[in-house]
Design a protein that fits this description.
Number of domains: 2
CATH superfamily of the largest domain: NAD(P)-binding Rossmann-like Domain
Largest sheet: 7 strands, parallel
Strand content: 15-25%
Helix content: 40-55%
CATH architecture of the largest domain: 3-Layer(aba) Sandwich
Bound molecules: uridine-diphosphate-N-acetylglucosamine
CATH class of the largest domain: Alpha Beta
Shape: globular
Length: 342
């Protein structure tokens, strides 16, 4: 059984990825500082897969803790690095927190990889690197746009740091997966997205409004140059996204990569407006969503969706879930979580 380290493994995408890796019989070490997630997630992973992953509470931004961790686990074959802060607004208010955590964590991990001969890294990147692309759908060849937040900047800089480290150490190989908008939850409703406080992202805000925790959803911007005037994104089921990480890990472990650093967009290839998401959610949940139309949210791009050709052809992966089942999974998770935690 090959051992895979999943940093940030109790988080939203990390936990779904741990499940998919265990389904494929990898031995998973979940490592997380629990700053934005809880140990209960391990129960969910165990209930779904019948196996509890190994777990370490650790902050990879701390040099000594990182060194101690890798000394303790000498058999890791590859790393999927999710552990990072991701709130765009917070990153504007506390940029150093973002640069310190997201960049030091990555650098410590890369250093440990060279030191311990761990060859393969899958990095959690974001479509935010493209900003508002000139051409749609956004392909991996689209140039980076200046980042609109420190969070976005950490993703761009992280990709550059990885590139430099791969040049310095020819043993290393990496894949950066650029996520569009991950939403939804595992079909079991045992794991899902759990934002702290008021959600910034659309779908958690929708499900929390539908269940009555939030009064009204605000639709940010109705004057975009899109068919219904609201902004367009590419919403992808988190389980489809998680599966892509297994494809990436296998590509690395089997030395199938064409260059030491590869990049893949993870999206559905379809753009949906905010109003389309609301209507689809109402249809699948049967809940009428209270919402109001308000002004644009600063920093938002107008429209972006993925060119998935490279991921389909080269990685051999494609998103399978419909928007309906994806939104329904988010709703089932919200209902299940609230029923258990009221
Ligand atoms: C945001 C980040 C992105 C990050 C991702 C996941 C920006 C510019 N981008 O993506 O870097 O990787 O989250 O954390 O912040 N919306 C509403 N009402 C709401 C919430 C959102 O109308 O209450 C709209 C937004 O204006 C946007 C769409 O829904 O048009 C999606 O928003 P969101 O879920 O926050 O994702 P992004 O902004 O695309």
């Amino acid at each position: 059984m090959k051992q895979i380290l999943v940093t940030g493994g109790t988080g939203y995408i990390g936990s779904h990825t741990a499940v998919e890796l265990q389904h494929k019989s990898y031995e998973v070490i979940v490592a997380d500082n629990l700053s934005n997630s809880s140990l209960d997630v391990l129960d969910g992973i165990e209930q779904i897969t019948g196996k509890r992953p190994l777990f370490e509470q650790i902050d990879f931004a701390k040099d000594q803790a990182c060194r101690d961790f890798f000394a303790k686990y000498p058999n890791i074959e590859a790393i999927i690095h999710f552990a990072a802060y991701k709130a765009v607004g917070e990153s504007m208010e506390q940029p150093i927190k973002y640069y310190r955590n997201n960049l030091l964590g990555l650098m410590n991990i890369l250093e440990a990889m060279s030191h311990h001969g761990i060859k393969h890294l899958v990095f959690s990147s974001s479509a935010t690197v493209y900003g508002q692309p000139e051409l749609l759908p956004a392909s991996e060849k689209a140039p980076f746009q200046p980042a609109t937040s420190p969070y976005g900047n950490t993703k761009q800089i992280s990709e550059e740091i990885i590139q430099d480290c791969l040049q310095a150490d020819p043993q290393l190989s990496a894949i950066a997966l650029r996520y569009f908008n991950p939403i939804g939850a595992h079909a079991s409703a045992l794991i899902g997205e759990l934002p702290l406080g008021v959600p910034n992202n659309l779908v958690p805000f929708i499900t929390q409004t539908a269940i009555g925790i939030r009064g009204k959803l605000k639709v940010f911007g109705t004057d975009y140059n899109t068919p219904d005037g609201t902004a367009i994104r590419d919403y992808i089921h988190v389980v489809d996204l998680a599966k892509a990480h297994v494809y990436a890990i296998e590509r690395l472990l089997n030395n199938q990569f064409q260059t030491p650093f590869e990049f893949f967009n993870l999206g559905t290839g379809k753009g949906r407006s905010v109003l389309e998401i609301i209507q689809c959610f109402e249809r699948v949940s049967g809940v009428k969503l209270p919402y109001e139309l308000v002004g644009r949210r600063p920093g938002d791009v107008e429209q972006v969706w993925a060119d998935t050709e490279l991921a389909n052809r080269v990685l051999g992966w494609s998103a399978q879930s419909s928007l309906e089942e994806t939104l329904l999974s988010a709703w089932n998770w919200e209902k299940n979580y609230r029923a258990k935690n009221q």
